[in-house]
């Protein structure tokens, strides 16, 4: 392959007034994430660059609105600003020196999270979700690739491109509108403690019975019950909310105040960006 042809295949470095783009650190279907230098703030940041197709503008606007709404939550990546230029949209965010939860699961090299460590991560995600839910916003695309762990091992929720906005006058009445986020959280916890994608048990009538837990895995009952409940297979318990989650046996003798204050380092410190 010739050098000239190789250069043609390289993505063009974006440009935005006030920022120096340094290198690409992430790639998605409709855009990319770049490490950049904020000239005014004299600090590094992350910039999400999206192709501004007319069919995508609503999603881009929703993502920006969601980031603005979550700006004061410590477990949501900090929004700095946004800009539009020609056929591109730019979302400027804090640079998180860490990795996605999906990367961290791989970095643990086949060693599953203990239930105790996993519940710390789950509690931080739950606080972030509740923060958005009380503002009428559901993430709607929650998975381990959309959750960062920073250099201290704490959660930073990202990627609100699929965010759904609900009528705030109904919040507290129709909590079912946020069930998908809690169900997605159950899948994340399941993946952490089992090392596998979410699996369903079936009975002899080919009907779903709930999450499958191998007897060879050391997963305590409160953790199993929490996953079953938040995944929607336990209809006896109330629809998940943060307050209901705090009362669940999985979080017995758990200091939520320490979590909210980030009093301790997270249970797993991810490899940092090079």
UniProtKB/TrEMBL annotation:
ATP binds at residue 48. It comes from the Eukaryota. Its EC number is 2.7.11.1. One of its GO terms (molecular function) is ATP binding. Pfam families: Pkinase. InterPro entries: Kinase-like_dom_sf, Prot_kinase_dom, Protein_kinase_ATP_BS, Ser_Thr_kinase_AGC. Keywords: ATP-binding, Kinase, Nucleotide-binding, Serine/threonine-protein kinase, Transferase. Residues 19-274 form the Protein kinase domain. It catalyses: L-threonyl-[protein] + ATP = O-phospho-L-threonyl-[protein] + ADP + H(+); L-seryl-[protein] + ATP = O-phospho-L-seryl-[protein] + ADP + H(+). The keyword Kinase applies. This is non-specific serine/threonine protein kinase. It comes from Cronartium quercuum f. sp. fusiforme G11.
